[in-house]
Specification:
The structure is a single chain. By secondary structure, the chain is α/β, with parallel strands linked by helices. The chain has ten helices and eleven strands. An eleven-stranded mixed beta sheet has the order 3-2-4-1-5-6-7-11-10-8-9, with helices on both faces. Helix 3 crosses helix 8. It is globular, with a radius of gyration of 21 Å.
């Protein structure tokens, strides 16, 4: 790990220099004629961005707007959607989703068709200006790796890639319009409050929201809609011995969710984030009729294996700050498509 100190220091220096160049306007940010919302984080790995994107998009659609999603498409095979896009397609089947490594170009293609663009994992993608920057911190490991045993998460320290998981310094949180602590139910309340106080030191005056990943139901992979998840089957997990398989950024959080439902975990096969599964990865799982549980992101890649596979569907639930985020979303300026639609309706009824 000590061999990584120098490359990590170089990474941090480059990230800081790049941020300063954008802050001073020496690197340009393109502004589009429609509002842009970014959902991002400080670290590499899972903080719950996909459920937050789904929540934001659903809220905007519920307000009568036409949202579109733009993401980089990390880990996708050529010409295919990646796992996050496929999971979102099951959740939001009628919402356009553009995957493009050049997210400014991807968003440009939605100007005439969407009222709002939601950028997935784009806090560091500053070539595209945004009207709302929402930054997620996993409360169980806000700066990357979990805190050492006996140490509070609020005082844990992080390190830049590749020595740690930080993409930017926590001081970058000052750019955020709102910061969301996710998975707050997996920490004692005092720990969450301590973390919120620590975050406020980095970003004074920035609203701090709190959410949990609430299990919504179990879904059979043969059902191709996230809404088909059965809440009743969650009760069947109490006292049941299950096996887990996942390739996500925070597998420990997945385990904690399953245990909170009362299940006993016999085995958890952990694979790297965005893992491309092969048949051998599940060999031996699901024997004696045991259920095999996986995440929504993994479920789209596992298909219908020869075992009792169940997909644990979760949704974001706010414990604090929902009204703040709603107010920020309601204050977004109208884009070209929405202005033209309003003008047309005004002409029809004027």
């Amino acid at each position: 790990m000590e061999l990584l100190r120098i490359p990590a220091a170089l990474f941090g220096a480059v990230a800081s220099l790049r941020g300063a160049l954008y802050d001073r306007g020496w690197l340009p940010s393109e502004r589009l004629d429609l509002p842009v919302v970014s959902v991002g984080n400080l670290t590499a790995g899972g903080t719950g961005k996909t459920p937050m994107v789904a929540w934001v998009v659903s809220y905007l659609a519920g307000r009568g707007l036409r949202p579109g999603i733009v993401s980089r498409g990390y880990g996708a095979a050529r010409g295919e959607d990646n796992d996050e896009a496929r999971a979102l397609a099951l959740e939001l089947p009628d919402v356009p989703h553009v995957q493009d490594a050049d997210r400014a170009r991807g968003a440009r293609g939605l100007v005439d068709h969407a009222d709002v663009v939601v950028l997935d994992d784009a806090f560091q993608h500053r070539r595209l200006a945004r009207d709302l920057d929402l930054v997620l911190l996993d409360a169980t490991r806000p700066w990357g790796f979990p805190a050492p045993a006996g140490q509070s998460v609020s005082h844990a320290t992080g390190a830049f890639l590749p020595r740690g998981l930080l993409r930017e310094s926590p001081s970058a949180l000052t750019r955020a319009h709102a910061i969301c602590l996710t998975r707050t139910d997996q920490l004692p309340a005092a720990e969450v409050e301590g973390l919120a106080a620590r975050v406020a030191e980095f970003a004074p005056g920035v609203p701090i929201l709190r959410t949990v990943h609430a299990p919504r139901g179990l879904r059979d992979p043969r059902e191709e809609s996230a809404s088909s998840a059965s809440p009743a089957e969650l009760a069947d997990l109490a006292g049941r011995t299950v096996e887990l398989v996942s390739g996500i950024g925070n597998p420990a959080a997945f385990e904690a969710s399953v245990r909170a439902l009362g299940a006993e975990i016999a085995e958890h096969r952990r694979f790297p984030d965005h893992h491309a599964y092969v048949e051998a990865d599940l060999a031996g799982l699901g024997t004696a009729g045991r259920w095999v549980l996986t995440t929504a992101k993994d479920g789209v890649k596992l298909g219908r294996p020869d075992c009792e596979l169940r997909i644990l569907e979760v949704e974001l639930a706010f414990t604090a700050g929902q009204q703040v985020l709603e107010a920020l979303l309601d204050a977004l300026p109208p884009g070209r498509a929405l202005r033209e639609r309003r003008a047309l309706h005004g002409g029809l009824y004027g």
